[in-house]
Structure formats: structure tokens, C-alpha cells
Write a structure and sequence with these properties.
The complex is a heterodimer of chains A (130) and B (99). Chain A has 130 residues and is α/β, with parallel strands linked by helices. Chain A has one domain: DsrEFH-like (Hypothetical Protein Ychn, Chain: A). Chain A is built from 4 helices and 5 strands. Chain A has a 5-stranded parallel sheet with strand order 4-3-2-1-5. In chain A, strand 3, helix 3 and strand 4 form a beta-alpha-beta unit. The chains are: A alpha/beta (130), B alpha/beta (99). At the A-B interface, loops of A face helix 3 of B.
Chain lengths: 130, 99
């Protein structure tokens, strides 16, 4: 472990990836993922977010939840930058299968192929699935 | 009969199975994550369009709006609000949910 990777208290920074594969609002998974992401940021870990399959729907622009009486968490994705969480990866094939493009997303992301995503997953210390 | 579906077409086969079992003249209401089936460019678009020859497709507008999909609805899909949801249930002799 390199010196810069060691925290002052002697703790270790690990690579955490949160893999999001569920659409928002229909289930609680997307919101729960976001909660844990923010907690991990408080512990100053090396955090990546992956959006695969229906998970790409979480980042859609134009979300308005007034009619379903649920709180929208779409803007929280924009706030992640303030917590130094800037590694957001979106699976290209998943977007194409759903007819959406990078322009439809509420935040800046890196669009990657399934093979590239596989490499990113493989290099993590911890992968958490939602 | 009114068929009600609430699962994403790219996560479960509920929409597909519903359409395969819906008789001609019946009504299909897409709610919650099933509203993605009513959107353009999605994997279910072709299947939903072909189903329109035999059944009437409805989608719950508040669920489309909550998912940022309100502007992407396939032409010919009828949008309803919660009052319209109640009317559909009340005017049909029976209904079936596809979970």
C-alpha cells in the first residue's frame, strides 16, 4: 500500500463500487444505494458508481415525482461531486437498449462498454449491488 | 377484463406474459415500473405496438412523470391519472394484476 493511500489514523482507503441495476421509485433499491454511497463518502473511500440495465433510468432528466407523492432524489446525483464522488460509469448497451443517450442524463458520466465495465468491476476491493 | 402490470419490461417478463394472455378487446394498464414499456426506443416498444391491434394500452401519467419519461410515450398509448385508473377498474367486469 502506497503512503498516499494510508489515512492519518492508519485506516486504509479501499476501492468501493456501487452497482445500480434497478429503476428508481418502483423499488427502494436506488434510494438505498444513494444513502450508502453518501455514507461511504463520509469515510473518504475511493467510490465508483456503476449504472447497468434498468439502473441507467436512475439518471434521467426531467423527473417529476409530484404526482406519486414520493420525494425525488434525482438532484442528489448532482450533489455527489461535492462529496468528491466523480466516478460515474454508465453501461452503453443498457442505454441503447432503452433508447436513451448521454444527453438524457442529469449528470456528467463516463459511458463505457460492457467489457470496460467488467474491468472496472474487477479492479475493486468491494462491490456492493443494488 | 382490465390487466394491470407494474414491472419493468427489461427486468421481468410480466408485460410480455400479460400481452400474451390478454384477449382481444381487453384493456392493459401500465403502472409503476411497467410504464417503461409505454416509451419510445425501449426494448418493449415493438411488442407493445403490435399488441395495440388487439388491446387498448393505458399508462399512468404520474408514474411516467416520476421517471422522466412523460415526453417519450408511444403514440396510441392512452394516458390516465389516478381518477382514470379508478374509472378503468370500475367499468370493467374484472381485473387481473401481473406482478
Amino acid at each position: 500500500m502506497s503512503e498516499e493511500m494510508d489515512m492519518e489514523e492508519g485506516g486504509t482507503i479501499k476501492k468501493f463500487m456501487f452497482v445500480n441495476r434497478k429503476a428508481p421509485y418502483g423499488t427502494i433499491y436506488a434510494l438505498e444505494s444513494l444513502e450508502v454511497v453518501l455514507i461511504s463518502a463520509a469515510f473518504e473511500q475511493d467510490v465508483s458508481l456503476a449504472f447497468v440495465d434498468d439502473g441507467v433510468y436512475q439518471l434521467m432528466k426531467g423527473i417529476n415525482t409530484d404526482g406519486i407523492e414520493m420525494k425525488s432524489f434525482a438532484k442528489t446525483y448532482r450533489a455527489l461531486e461535492g462529496y468528491d464522488i466523480e466516478k460515474l460509469y454508465v453501461d452503453r448497451e443498457s442505454m441503447e437498449a432503452r433508447g436513451i443517450s448521454e444527453d438524457d442524463l442529469i449528470v456528467d458520466v463516463q459511458v463505457v462498454s460492457a467489457a470496460e465495465m467488467a474491468d472496472l468491476m474487477n479492479e475493486q476491493d468491494v462491490v456492493l449491488s443494488f | 377484463m382490465l390487466h394491470i402490470v407494474n414491472k419493468s419490461p427489461t427486468e421481468r417478463n410480466s408485460v410480455e406474459s400479460c400481452l400474451a394472455h390478454a384477449k382481444k378487446g381487453s384493456k392493459v394498464l401500465l403502472i409503476e415500473d411497467a410504464v417503461y414499456a409505454a416509451t419510445k426506443g425501449g426494448a418493449a416498444e415493438a411488442r407493445v405496438r403490435s399488441a395495440m391491434a388487439d388491446v387498448t394500452i393505458y399508462a399512468l401519467q404520474p408514474d411516467l412523470a416520476a421517471r422522466g419519461m412523460a415526453d417519450r410515450v408511444i403514440d396510441g398509448v392512452n394516458l390516465v391519472d389516478y381518477g382514470g385508473f379508478v374509472d378503468l377498474v370500475a367499468e370493467q367486469a374484472n381485473c387481473q394484476s401481473w406482478l
